[in-house]
Design a protein that fits this description.
Elements (H helix, E strand, L loop, with lengths): L2 E4 H12 L4 H10 L1 E2 L4 E5 L11 E3 L2 E5 L5 H8 L5 E3 L3 H9 L3 E3 L1 H7 L1 E2 L12 H12 L3
Parallel strand pairs: 1-3, 1-6, 3-5, 6-7
Antiparallel strand pairs: 2-8, 4-5
């Protein structure tokens, strides 16, 4: 069974609770630093950042973007019976339950996250932009 996070909704919850928005990368780093259910997909509204492919795998997590459509519609299309969706969006929750998906709130999901054990710590993979910058740096011979 897959887990699908409504990325913008989870970010909104964190911002209201902690008084600041950690941003997409901050959310991803928080999740990568914890033991999480797998497979896990985070869906964000809009196109991916420049230089980043949609459907990018970062460690154990797949990050995807809705492009011109809405993340809610993409999440609804992805959910299968038994999958768990993390959102506080009531309409999306109802739509996912209609497809026999389970829904939990961002509050519950985040409260159940536990840090990875020291030996299990996963190093975050560099973003595509970072890799390209370093490749250019070394090609210039510096």
């Amino acid at each position: 069974m897959a887990w699908i996070l409504d990325g913008n909704n989870v970010l909104g919850f964190i911002a209201s609770r902690e008084g600041r928005d950690p941003g997409r990368e901050g959310l991803l780093q928080r999740i990568l630093a914890c033991r999480t259910p797998l497979p896990l997909t985070i869906v964000f509204d809009g196109p991916p950042p420049a230089g980043v492919a949609g459907g990018t795998r970062r460690g154990r997590v797949t990050v995807t973007y809705s492009g011109r459509g809405s993340a809610d519609d993409l999440i609804h299309a992805l959910v299968r019976p038994g999958d768990t969706v993390v959102t506080a969006d009531r309409d999306l929750s109802l739509r996912c339950r209609d497809r026999r998906g389970k829904v939990i709130t961002p509050e519950r999901f985040l409260s159940e996250l536990r840090p990875r054990r020291g030996g299990d710590a996963e190093k975050p993979s560099p973003a595509g932009v970072d890799v390209q910058e370093w490749m250019n740096f070394f090609r210039r011979g510096r």
